[in-house]
Design a protein that fits this description.
alpha+beta, about 55% helix, 15 strands, three-stranded antiparallel β-sheet, about 450 residues, single chain, PH-domain like
Length: about 450
Amino acid sequence: MYVMLQMMFFLTMYPVVFILYFVMRSAGHGKNGMYFGVHMKAEWTEDAGIKEIAAAYDRELKKMMIIFALIPLITFVIPYFSISFSIWMMWLLMVIFVLMVPYARGNSRIKARKREMNWGKAGSGMSYTEIKSAGKVRCVKPGPFLLPIVLGGIAAAAGMYHFTRSGLPEFGILIITFAVLTGVIFWLAVWMDRQKVEVISSESEVNLNYARARKNLWKNMWLILAWLNTVFMVIVMAAIEMDRMSVIMWGGAVYTLATLALMYYVWRRVLKVEQRYGGQRDLPVEDDEDNWLWGMLYYNKNDRHVMVSRRVGIGTTMNLATPFGMGFTLFGAACLAVIPLMCVWLIMEEFTPLRLAVVGDTLTATHIKVEYEIPVTDIREIALIDERPRWSKVSGTGMDNLCKGTFHIRNEGRCEVFLNPQNDIFLQIGTEEGMYYMSAADDEETRQIYEQIAAGGR
């Protein structure tokens, strides 16, 4: 299981560093008359100081990419899931944020060079919005999204009914979540389709074609994501029914890779659209660098739009000066802050030994906290077994050295599990409330507890 998870992490996360590298490298070499998110005229970019800033940026970015490409390789020699998982998660956070540092530094240096050379004045914050033609372009229609939404809804309803009857409502809720996600994807597509349209030309026909080309790309991306999500939901349902959790893991890896590949493809296509219309930009560009923090975060109280075009990467970003933009950003920051805490919790889970003991008339199972308390008088049967049933996790923890929580045994139903899978013997305990499978920290202690309870006539 650990090897499978390690390979899944490698396949789904490792490409991120290279994708971000190429995106960030492109962002530092001029896009729509901007260098590092700063408006620049063509003649300014020939300045030796500007060229040195770009060259230094390339060198720094390349060094970081090489370092980040090497770090995950150490996880292949670490035998502990929690440590490996923590390295991957912290690595991912560092890749996302640290690779932005050279860009932010380049943005500051470009601004300083503009002030030094007296090239224009930053801070006007003006922008143009097409309201007659391009501003009304709508590419997202309900029709193409209706089929994946309906199919997903039917599959989710059938899955919820089936898994609830099978005593596995948690899996039914999981399937419902996938169906809701397809609907959310459609909502995001509609929402982004109605956001501010960038104006590049004094001719409405040029703006119309430019807006349609960009919005069609995003519409197609959202539609493919809706189908990917629906197909993956059906695969998850089939895998649960066949008790093939590995299919879910590998299917998730393929799902993630397909999403990354789709985003990379859209990025390349957007760049081609920009190149195609680059020669048709004839409107004066107003400097608004003061509204862009480090060239990446947009904060403009005078702009009522929630979404604006990014200056690095593709797509749109939020205006942090709007209540929705600030609220969503704070929510995202809170989610990211949870990741280190989750890593600490996983390390505690894996390295805290299981404690199983008979205290008074109660069998107590403790791992970080008290997990189970079973009165000895409630135990109807107890057996010492040397082979675990084939089960799938419903909720709880499933590591190579720890299985804890609620599991499901095919054709038998639920059971509560508290054991180390690496042990050789386990306790099978039957009570009125259900079946338990348990072990102590080692086999000798497990046998002692069995003999202690069995000696009481059970």
